[in-house]
Amino acid sequence: MTRHLITSAIPYINGIKHLGNLVGSQLPADLYARYQRGRGHEVLFLCATDEHGTPAELAAAKAGKPVAEYCREMHAIQAEIAKGFGLSFDHFGRSSSPQNHRLTQHFAGRLAEAGLIGEVSEKQVYSNADGRFLPDRYIEGTCPNCGYDKARGDQCENCTKQLDPTDLIEPRSAISGSTDLEVRETKHLYLRQSGLKDQLDAWIDGKTDWPILTTSIAKKWLHDGDGLQDRGITRDLDWGIPVKKGDDDWPGMEGKVFYVWFDAPIEYIACAGEWAEATGRADAEWERWWRTDKGAQDVRYTQFMGKDNVPFHTLSFPATLIGSGEPWKMVDYIKSFNYLNYDGGQFSTSQGRGVFMDQALEILPADYWRWWLLSHAPESSDSEFTWENFQASVNKDLADVLGNFVSRITKFCRSKFGEAVPDGGAYGAQEEVLIADLQARLRRYETCMEAMEVRKSAQELRAIWVAGNEYLQSAAPWATVKEDPERAAAQVRMGLNLIRFYAVISAPFIPTASARMLSAMNTLETDWPTDVDAALRALPGGHAFTVPDVLFAKITDEQREDWQTRFSGTRD
RNA sequence: GGGCCUGUAGCUCAAUUGGUUAGAGCAGAGCGCUCAUAACGCUUUGGUUGGGGGUUCGAGUCCCUCCGGGCCUACCA
Q1: Is the CB atom of residue A20 positioned under 7 angstroms from any atom of strand B?
Q2: Neighbours of A426 (CB within 10 A)
Q3: Least enclosed by CB within 10 Å: which of A86, A103, A312, A515?
């Protein structure tokens, strides 16, 4: 038995995430976690909200609430929605937790002792009206290159030229519009990751089985230009983890906090501590997942994330762990995703474009979304959501192929044999062929799931569902029942057992429907069907069941058009 | 500007890493079945693999070039 530590990139706190965010990290991570649990492995699946940084402060101000209160509320909302989507986190933590405060300060202290922290004095733009330093992209002005009047301090969106905030003509705060800006001297800590370049390089070089998307981004950062650059890990903000050297104050760093990207990955570890606390476990219980000197040597750690997160997970976070000189568990596999686009453009949180998680659940159950998103996951390139494609896939795959299979066999049994698995007859040659076929198909499905080939796994699963319809078609119990009731009994018994079999293996994709199938089949037997022959005899003759309601209602053209219109604009 | 990814059937995607005649699902066409959510099964139409050039016995795959889409480029996260 392997122990699987699984983390999803932690979603940012400022608002409800859209379907693109979901499919890029949390959902595939949940698929993998559910699958590994289903296979009988010990799994610790962690996620959290990422709560620090400028956007959180601004979002709270906009909502007219103290940041801490805003974050607490948004965390509760995100947790509720995650639950609605069936995301089976063992713990959904917060990067603002006391555990993360302690650990982040601890790592900073260790890195400082190792000589990997440098102090750099730099000039930054301060807005008197806003009472805060402004990150480059929060400064707007006229582009010196093309004259565009809404150029940002980091880059002009119009001519794509990279800029420095001081290049802008008539610079103003993007927050308040104030032009009362000044350049101030401020001191910050830098992580000297350049000093760890060779170790990181060797580590990445050893990851030959990682997605190209993951390693190519890492290598680009390692080798581009002068190579890996040191990175600022502190900011002049109020909300965040105070800069400390372990438990000690950091002279000269008073009033400053750690940069959100320094503390966010550390939350993966802190979250395990939160999980232990929340479930009444001792510290040793979470340490055996994270410390290779305390039992984590046999842990396999997999991270899931969108491509924009890759540099931090392949370079700065590993640099933090390596630089600490302590035996922390390093990631074994990084599964990264491209982006999901919405109907010809990008999903956008800031512009409110696309379908957001709460809206999705308002119109359809989670399984519909889970199935479509996972079977179209942007693995090899960006992929696109369209309502037509969504309607077609859901109706065909879920309603027609799987849902109707459950419906046809349970209703046929009820009318000919009553609501119990028919007794009598025995599996014959036809059933042996089916079992052999399913055994082979299940192996392929397992292989794809182990490899985290999400779309391919969905295809294999669908083919297994189709095999049930093929069997029924050729067995034709509606015909055999007239001449050979014993034979028909065996065929129907097979059909009903297939429902239970499907429920078990489909649970990682569509957990709610799977639970309903199991409930209809009146069984708690959910062991992974390693032996397909035995699995298809689990429900014996005489076992009572009920005919479930329609498993998946079809999406009508009217609904589709309605939603198309409703989601064509932008959200407040 | 630089780096990376990507372009395959009307649509969404494959193709054992250079190896026979480029495959699936959906949509379309035909047939079958009547248990079922007008569902299911079988058969079938559909491709100058974005354009052009090159390497090779052999190219969707490698090289060059042009065209299109996307991401990243270190102070958003």
Answers
A1: no
A2: 10
A3: A515
pTM of the model: 0.95
Cite the DSSP H helix spans in A235-282.
260-278
How far CA A449 is from CA of A28, A220, A458, A462, A472, in Å, comes to 10, 29, 9, 14, 27
* Residue located via tokens 């979304």: A369
| ipTM of predicted assembly, 2 dp | 0.92
DSSP letter string over A195-263?
Answer: GGHHHHHHHHHT-TTS-HHHHHHHHHHHHSTTSSPPEE-EES-SSS-B-EETTEE-TT-TT-EE-HHHH
Provide the residue count of chain A: 572
**Tokens 């940002």 correspond to what residue?**
A152
For A205-237, the pLDDT digits (tens) are 888 778 777 888 888 888 877 788 899 999 999
Closest by CA position to A283, among listed A269, A262, A299: A269
Q: Which amino acid is at A343?
A: D
Residue in A298, A544, A323 with CA at minimum distance from that of residue A414: A544
The per-residue pLDDT of chain A, averaged, comes to 92
Q: Which residue is nearest nucleotide B36, judged by alpha carbon to C1' distance?
A: A408
* pLDDT for the residue numbered A202: 87
Residue A282 is classified by DSSP as -
Tell me, in Å, how far CA of A176 is from C1' of B22? 58
Can you tell me the distance from the alpha carbon of A330 to that of A328, in angstroms, rounded to the nearest whole number?
A: 6
Distance (Å, whole) CA A410 – CA A500: 12
**Region A374-397 average pLDDT:** 88
List all nucleotides in chain B with at least one atom under 7 A from a protein Cβ.
1-7, 11-14, 24-27, 32-37, 39-42, 69-77
As a rounded value in angstroms, the CA-to-C1' distance for A212 and B54 is 27
A553 touches strand B (CB under 7 A): yes
Whether the beta carbon of A550 falls within 7 A of nucleic chain B: the reply is yes
